[in-house]
Design a protein that fits this description.
Oligomer: heterodimer
Number of strands of chain A: 10
CATH superfamily of chain B: HUPs
Shape of chain A: globular
Number of domains of chain B: 1
Helix content of chain B: 40-55%
Radius of gyration of chain A: 22 Å
CATH architecture of chain B: 3-Layer(aba) Sandwich
CATH superfamily of the largest domain in chain A: HUPs
Distance between the termini of chain B: 68 Å
Structural class of chain B: mainly alpha
Strand order of the largest sheet of chain B: 3-4-5
Structural class of chain A: alpha/beta
Largest interface: A-B, 57 and 60 residues
Largest sheet of chain B: 3 strands, parallel
Helix content of chain A: 40-55%
CATH class of the largest domain in chain A: Alpha Beta
Strand content of chain A: 5-15%
CATH class of chain B: Alpha Beta
Distance between the termini of chain A: 67 Å
Order of helices and strands of chain B: EEHEHEHHEHHEHHEEHHHHHHHH
Number of strands of chain B: 8
Radius of gyration of chain B: 23 Å
CATH architecture of the largest domain in chain A: 3-Layer(aba) Sandwich
Order of helices and strands of chain A: EEHEHEHEHHHEHHEEHHHHHEEH
Number of helices of chain B: 16
Largest sheet of chain A: 6 strands, mixed
Strand order of the largest sheet of chain A: 5-4-3-6-8-7
CATH topology of chain B: Rossmann fold
CATH topology of the largest domain in chain A: Rossmann fold
Number of domains of chain A: 2
Chain lengths: 411, 420
């Protein structure tokens, strides 16, 4: 939108005056053409990466926020307009955050009616016996994002399994992707750097049927090239009904810093977001094994969209960093790196062995992290005896019975 | 709980345990002697390929090109290497390498005439201090606009109105749309000038004096400029992928001897070496970049900042609080491999006259395996017109994404020409 309306240029695609200057590329468009261009680009992203096949059932991870609302709206519009033959299903996770999730869930329920899509809601409480508010009351605000990320990721998988759906889409946008690329650079996380820009990742599935390859849930990000600003514009001009409040809990420190950096870069050069994505994809290409024999680790699951604090979360095989989030994460990471430096005095990073640099001494070492099995407690795919969620639940539950016992005694 | 703080005793040096640890090494208190030897050991390790024994007795030592800017990094590197060569000479009577110290005067573009005069004088002083007969160190200054002397004769048709090399360079830079683009293209020109000079002087390697902090900065700013594909080449010790059609059988290495030292450690080195201080001329950008204490990211308006200077400010701040995180960024990116199989392919392909394309502007190979979305992006004539490109003498297919971005929005019809 220009400052001088009298000199407003014409829309690139028709003679009407342009109303929108696209943040992504500076193109001037009228509202109708902005909306159709936005939709066409999502369709192109879907088509060029062969995201969906006809007749496929897709779960849309819906939070009621702008990204997932726009995703649901665009997918259902495209599905009808181009007769894509997709069966769309809204899947919402209720983390149990009073004042945030309860309101946004109401939005999702309206969305379901507006688009005529079936909706399933799963709550942390029914899955884990804990709401996020309970978790925060127990662990404080330091590592809540880590818990939430791990729980949500698994909750989405379980939801898909319940509904017998093997493909879930989330509303991650270009800004989120750029942020993750910079975050993984800052955190020195090479394996995640290698996979964080992929449009589709294959998640581990829960349950006993995980030995079946078809049981894995695919996660895709059809909005990966869509700017957050354009998503807001789209939602505004399509008059979509969405919930604007951010999660009340602050993001993890590395992500927070990366987010500030992306915002600052966007101010300096708006195309920077696309450029970071392009670089991120190039890194992924450079880190991809070229000999064709080795395969990458099955891509790790990433948590659902709205609380991006922790998707591609900090829980690597280096679990000592895992509970560090909030303000302290950078300090703790710094301290750990210092320790490494101290003890080894040679090159060291915190990352897990990367696919491109397997340990030359031990050829089996590179395979070690790929040995996935079922969690002994819940059956979710994991590289340890217990999956991350069960480890967390164990530590949470340890605090709970102690309280209960005391109440009994008092009574 | 705490009363007035008693004067804290100086802890002993973590290495020699006998002198007081008055300066901070990466994490520990060190005495100045131990700090200096720590700071020297890092770059000298990187100079391993140029040990005395690798150089045959009867051959003159290879001349390595050392870009010099009067900043703390290049000055420190020059000093450390001079000391290294002296110790080689003391031990075996000769050195494993010689140095060609090159200062590129960019005052024609920066407009800093008085600064240029001061630098010229200082450069002469530096030469008499470090150079001279038997030192193995030679000094050379060139103008940035000299890059136009390497113009390909088969380039765009030369128009008579082009003027001097300096005028050509000024037209080129002023045609660029933003501070980010200008700074990016100037850095590119500088790097390519060093490469040309190294080739011209038969130098086997260029020694860039980037500190850890500077490399972390560069990693993120190249990423933000869409240059991810060439980051392994532009931030790591490697063989530069010269287009084999143009430079057959020529191998040129880049070495970053200071990659394991933080900028603040180089400042400590300088402060402990009084003889060096008269030659230190801080660049205006580094002196103005006092990071704001409130926020790690300065609130600045888009117009007066470039991507490079934004990253510079970000990491200047980061280095103070999180030095190990900064170092880890550099180690991490060092593990992203350059697509060497492509370069090998290019060498073979050169023989059959069909090579993997190098970008006409930055000179690095172009990523040919990119997703379709980028091809679309690169065809957008609204942002970069055919007219601009033909004036520059650069083909549409000859640009990488990062260089394309820096040229987008360039002025047409001003007669800007690409020098190489």
């Amino acid at each position: 939108m220009t400052a001088r309306p009298q000199r407003r240029p014409a829309c690139l695609q028709c003679p009407s005056p342009a109303k929108i200057k696209r943040p992504k590329n500076g193109h001037a468009l009228c509202i109708a053409h902005f909306l159709s261009t936005f939709e066409t680009e999502v369709l192109q992203t879907m088509e060029t990466s062969g995201l969906f096949s006809r007749g496929e059932t897709i779960a849309i991870g819906a939070s009621g926020g702008k990204d997932s609302t726009v995703l649901a709206s665009v997918l259902s519009t495209l599905n009808t307009r181009h007769n894509l033959g997709l069966n769309l299903h809204l899947l919402s996770i209720d983390e149990g955050i009073v004042g945030y999730r309860d309101h946004s869930l109401a939005t999702v329920q309206r969305n379901a009616r507006q688009y005529g899509l079936p909706l399933t809601v799963l709550s942390y409480r029914e899955l884990y016996g804990w709401t996020m508010d309970d978790v925060v009351a127990t662990v404080g605000k330091k590592s809540n994002c880590t818990y939430c990320g791990v729980f949500r990721r698994q909750a989405l998988d379980r939801g898909c399994e319940m509904l017998n759906i093997s493909h879930v889409v989330t509303g991650h946008n270009a800004d989120d992707m750029a942020e993750t690329v910079l975050m993984n650079l800052l955190r020195g996380d090479l394996p995640r750097l290698a996979r964080c820009t992929a449009i589709t990742t294959r998640s581990s599935s829960s349950s006993s049927s995980s030995s079946d390859a078809s049981a894995t849930v695919r996660r895709s990000k059809p909005l990966k090239y869509a700017y957050q600003k354009e998503i807001v514009l789209y939602a505004h001009h399509r008059k979509l009904d969405y919930f604007t409040t951010e999660c009340t809990y602050a993001p993890e420190a590395f992500r927070g810093s990366a987010r500030d950096l992306v915002k600052a870069l966007e101010r300096v050069r708006p195309t920077a977001i696309m450029d970071i994505l392009r670089s991120g994809e190039a890194f992924a290409g450079l880190l991809r094994p070229t000999d064709g024999n080795r395969t990458l680790v099955p891509p790790q699951k990433c948590a659902e969209k709205e609380c991006t604090c922790n998707e591609e979360d900090s829980l690597g095989t280096c679990s000592s960093t895992s509970f560090a989030s909030g303000e302290g994460a950078m300090h703790i990471h710094e301290a750990q790196l210092r320790n490494l430096h101290h003890h080894h005095h040679h090159h060291h990073t915190t990352e897990t062995p990367s696919p491109s640099s397997p340990s030359p001494k031990n050829p089996t070492a590179k395979r070690k992290q790929q040995l996935l099995r079922s969690c002994t407690q819940c059956g979710y795919l994991t590289s340890q005896d217990l999956c991350q969620a069960c480890v967390m639940l164990q530590s949470l539950n340890r605090s709970r019975p102690a309280v209960m016992v005391q109440i009994e005694h008092d009574g | 709980m705490t009363g007035p703080q008693p004067a804290r005793p100086v802890p002993p040096c973590a290495r020699c345990k006998c002198s007081p640890g008055t300066v901070t090494g990466r994490n520990d208190p060190l005495c100045s002697t131990c700090f200096i030897s720590y700071a020297r050991s890092k770059p000298i390790k990187r100079m391993d390929p140029f040990r005395v024994r690798n150089n045959p007795t009867n051959a003159p030592p290879p001349l390595l090109l050392l870009p010099f800017s009067f900043g703390v990094s290049s000055l420190t590197l020059l000093h450390i290497l001079k000391e290294h060569m002296s110790s080689q000479r003391t031990r075996v009577g000769r050195t494993g390498y010689g140095l060609l110290v090159v200062w590129v005067d960019d005052s024609g573009i920066s407009g800093d005439g008085p600064g240029s005069v001061r630098k010229k004088e200082t450069f002469m002083g530096l030469e008499s201090h470090f150079g001279g007969e038997g030192s193995g160190i030679t000094f050379k200054s060139v103008q940035l606009e000299d890059i136009y002397t390497y113009s390909q004769p088969q380039g765009a048709p030369t128009s008579s109105a082009e003027g001097t090399n300096l005028e050509k360079l000024r037209v080129l830079i002023s045609s660029l749309p933003s501070l980010s683009s200008k700074q990016d293209i100037l850095t590119t020109l500088l790097t390519r000038l060093f490469i040309r000079l190294a080739i011209q002087h038969s130098s086997p390697a260029i020694l860039f004096s980037h500190s850890t902090t500077r490399l972390a900065e560069k990693t993120l700013s190249e990423t933000a400029k869409g240059r991810g594909y060439s980051v392994p080449w532009s931030t790591s010790d490697c063989t530069i992928p010269l287009p084999p059609s143009q430079f057959p059988h020529r191998k040129l290495q880049t070495i970053y001897p200071l990659r394991d030292l933080l900028k603040k450690e180089l400042h400590t080195y300088l402060s402990l070496t009084p003889s060096l201080q008269p030659f230190h001329i801080p660049s205006s950008s580094s002196s103005s970049a006092t990071p704001s204490p409130q926020s790690i990211i300065p609130i600045s308006t888009a117009k007066d900042t470039s991507i490079d200077s934004l990253m510079h400010q970000y990491f200047s701040q980061m280095e103070q609080t999180y030095p190990s995180i900064v170092a880890n960024v550099v180690k991490t990116i060092g593990r992203v491999p350059a697509p060497t199989h492509l370069v090998a392919l290019a060498e073979v392909a050169a023989e059959v006259e069909q090579s993997v394309p190098n970008c006409a502007v930055c000179g690095f190979p172009i990523d040919i395996d990119e997703a379709d979305v980028w091809e679309e992006e690169d065809r957008d004539v609204k942002k970069l017109s055919v007219g601009v490109l033909s004036e520059l003498g650069v083909g549409v297919e000859e640009l990488c994404g990062g260089c394309r971005r820096s040229l987008e929005g360039a002025k047409e019809g001003v007669g800007a020409r690409w020098p190489l």
